[in-house]
Amino acid sequence: MDIEKLRAYCISKKGVTEEFPFDETTLVFKVVGKMFALTDLEGDLTVNLKCDPEKALELRETYACVQAGYHMNKKHWNTVRVDGSVKDQLVEAWIDHSYQLVVEKLTKVQKDQLAKL
Fold first, then answer.
1. Global pTM exceeds 0.90
2. Which of 2, 53, 107, 109 sits a CA distance of 20 to 30 A from 100?
């Protein structure tokens, strides 16, 4: 997976926008204004993804490419090195999990907003 495939997968999800709120190289993907993934456009490809805390620990123990979230809440975020050591489908499943966690926490108004998109 490369940055273009990662980007295309993220923005294909319902209600997703992309922006650069921190600097000109940190691309952030949001669903109804809530962040679910971010990546740096410079250097090796990594993506920070929200994750259930128990699953986060399990993934870190199982996959060398998964680490505690860099510059994020280590309990709820993982940083995934997208280095080809795991299949693209697995990275996509982790993106799906992150997206779903964020959608589940949306307010009723935000969920209604998402449903109309």
1. yes
2. 2
